[in-house]
Structure formats: C-alpha cells, structure tokens
Write a structure and sequence with these properties.
This protein has 377 residues and is of the alpha/beta class. It has two domains: 163 residues, D-Maltodextrin-Binding Protein, domain 2 (3-Layer(aba) Sandwich), CATH 3.40.190.170; 132 residues, D-Maltodextrin-Binding Protein, domain 2 (3-Layer(aba) Sandwich). Helices cover 47% and strands 14% of the residues. It has 13 helices and eleven strands. The strands form two sheets. The protein has a six-stranded mixed β-sheet with strand order 7-6-8-5-9-11, with helices on one face. Helix 6 links the parallel strand 6 and strand 7. The radius of gyration is 27 Å and the shape is globular.
Length: 377
Amino acid sequence: MKKGKSPEGKLSGPSKHSRRRFLQVAGLGAAATVASPQVSRAQTATWKFQSTWPNRDIFHEFCNDFAKRVNDMSGGRLKLDVLASGAVVPAFQLQDAVHAGILDGGHGVSGYWYGKNKAFSLFGTPPSFGWNANSFLGWMNYGGGYELYNELLRTLKINVVGFLTGPMPNQPLGWFKNPITTPDQIRGLKYRTIGLSADLNQELGAAVTILAGGEIVPALERGVIDGAEFNNPSSDLVLGFPDVAKNYMLKSYHQASETFEVIFNKTKFDTLPAELKAIVKHAAEAASADMSWKALDRYSKDLEALKARGVNIQSTPDVVMKAQLDAWNKVIEKLSSDPFFKKVIDSQKAWVQRTYAYERANEPSRDVAYDHFFKTT
C-alpha cells in the first residue's frame, strides 16, 4: 500500500488536505489574475523637474503641487524632483534642456518658446476673443487644441510631450510709475511682457522687452523699463513690485486666457508604462482644478495686502482696452499669413463663438447678484 492511500485507493490524511489546499490557492490566483489589471512594477525612477519660476513665487508652489500629485499617485514609482528656475538652466532655456535630456521635465508657459515660433504663444497666451483660461483648456481638450499643439511639436522636431494645466485668472495690465489712462501713454513706453502680448504692445507703440519673472523688478528699479506685467497679486507682491512702483492697473486684454505648460522629454516619457503616463495626465488635470481654487483664495488676499502697502489699485480704462482689441485685429491679420498660425486661430475662434454664445445665453450677471448683497452705496 502506498503512503497516503486508503485501502479503497482514495486520498486521505495530509496528502488529501495538501491537494485540496493547492487547488484552493490555485483558484484564488486565477481569480485574481482575471479581476486585477496587469500593473507594471518597474523600478522607482527619479526625474529632474525644473520650473521657470523663482523659489518664493506662488507659480513654483503650483509646480510643486503638480509634482506632489504625480509622486503620490504613482506610489513613488515615478518621483519628480522639483528644482527652481536657474538650478540647471535659465527659464527661457527650459524647453531646450528638456528636449536634449539635460532635464527630464519642467513647468512653465508655452509663451516662453515664442522666439522659436510665434504659434507657441497660441497655446497659453492666445488673443482675447472673449474667452477665459478655463474655456481655453476646454478647447485644448475638446476643440482640437491638443492635436494642433502636438502638430507644432512634430513639425519643429521638438522632443517633448506637453500638458496644459492651470487656468490663470485674467492678468493685470501691470505696474507703472504713472497710471495709464489713455492709449497714447503706451506709445514709446518701455514695457515688459512675453509671447504674443509683445506683438500686441508693439502694435500699440510700446518698446517691448521680454524678461523672465525674476528679472523684471530689478529692470524696473534701474529704469531699464517704465512698466511691466507679470501675472497676479501674489506673484507681484513676493517679487517686490510695490517696492519700485505704486500704480497697479487691473484688467487687460493682453493675456486673458493664459495657462501653464508641463513638459517632459518625449524619449524618456515614452518608456513609462501606460498607468504612469495616465497618472501624469490626470495629475495635470487635478492640479489644474486645485490651482484655480488656491489662486482665488491667495490672489484676493494678496490684493488686499498690496492695498495695505499703499499701492494705487485701479482698473484699466475701457478706452485703453478697446485699443488693445483693435491692435489684436492687426496682429492676427499679420501673423495669419502663416498657414499653421491661421489654422490655430480659426479653430480657437470657432470654439469661442460657439461656446461663449451658450455661456452668455445661460449665465446670469454676477455683478447684479454681488451688488445686491454687498454694495453699500
């Protein structure tokens, strides 16, 4: 008689229980294989990820917010090691460094690559057609924007993958030694801006200087420029604008729909498993929403802080903004001689014409409601 067999030839004792246990475990394994996706467990990767912003700027904080989402959602399998502007390369060299693999990725704005092709500015600082930055991101995702953006990268053979994120509130006209009350005051003004806003202000007669964020206040202090815009009350406060100018002009059509751009070296990004690529994409979307909420909180508080510093805060007059819109017409007409530029402009206009028509018909006036509850005079 062989061990483990009863006289009837059936399994018994430890052998019988071992086989039953094996079958149970095998069955559970098969069920787990069917129920669970095949998730890659590649070795942890740490990528050098530089922003184009000074370390104290809220924009660098937004960069860290995005990176934290990637790091957390990936369980540490992809870690973005965030560096401030200039840690490896100056701000305006970020795209070249990512393209070459000197950096693995970075956080900036597409208008910074305006010098390579002005169409880059259409993917971050487009003309003011009556849309805001959230509507712009709608066009990117549902109006064909990403297809055109990727076409531009392929055409110029730029080895990066990009994601647009972070809808910025409308940007102020900026900081000036004297208030801007008429379009004539812009003529001959030495003014800092970036992207297509440079063409716009040149059309208005300004002498435009393009500077990275950390270089603006020193230039304004030395008189190299007479006025400048950067972006928002929080950034402007920490960069030191109220130390060198006291007139802060809110409202403008020069950059009404800007967003951030997150880029990665394409060769390296393509090596990621599908789930990590998805995490990067969804982290950009999640950070986009959170940034909107944080900006509303911080910008409103810091505007009050600027008032407390004795800054003269006023709205840009309608006559100046009407001159901006007229200048936009001329800029668009000139640059639309390039077929790709025109293709993007036509796509953006079609999106705004359709979607804002809906918003105008559907949204009640916020001013009426606000005045009803808060207006005291």
